[in-house]
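Z., the sequence and structure:
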Amino acid sequence: MAQGLKLMRSYYKADENKKKEAGFVQIDPQEYVEQKLSEGERSETRVKKSRIRARRGRVGEEIVTKMADGHVETKNVVKNADDMIIMNPDGEEYVMPAASFAEQYEKDAQNPQLYKSKDGPQTFLILKENVEFTAPWGEKMKIKKGGALNITRRDKGDIYGIQPSEFEKTYEKCEKNVPLPAMRKKKEDLSR
């Protein structure tokens, strides 16, 4: 209980003015996820079902990730000549390093102009409030209530958000939802 209160105090920063900015709660994503899971919130396991388009970025090119409803989620700048620009079905774009792209996507044999995810099941925490945080690429990210935090690679500090509409269109449920610690235990059991 004391640890939970400590986490709660730390992810909600002391300065009330920083806490809410235009209806978004300022969070540290790692601490926020730990707090929510310790309070008993359940993660969801989903698989990416939609196909994406991709192209090479140009060094210095700024990509503004803008949703179909006009909400600006984040921005990023292409840092390397081999960085990829990903375009989801609704048109929102984001930057991905080439190594990550090669690890996570492959050409769709049925439609070679598109790519499909190689990731398999991913773990998400559904948001019950609007949140703002610094994304792994160093820029602010604003995710609306009902959206999700992808916490699959949180042990590597890689937590990012997906807006509500885009989340529902892009991912489908693939198995019973279980608390993350139980999922971790299952993975440990499988590795033996």
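The longest strand covers residues 111-117. Helices lie at 2-11, 16-19, 29-38, 98-104, 164-170, 180-190.

Let me know what you think.
H.
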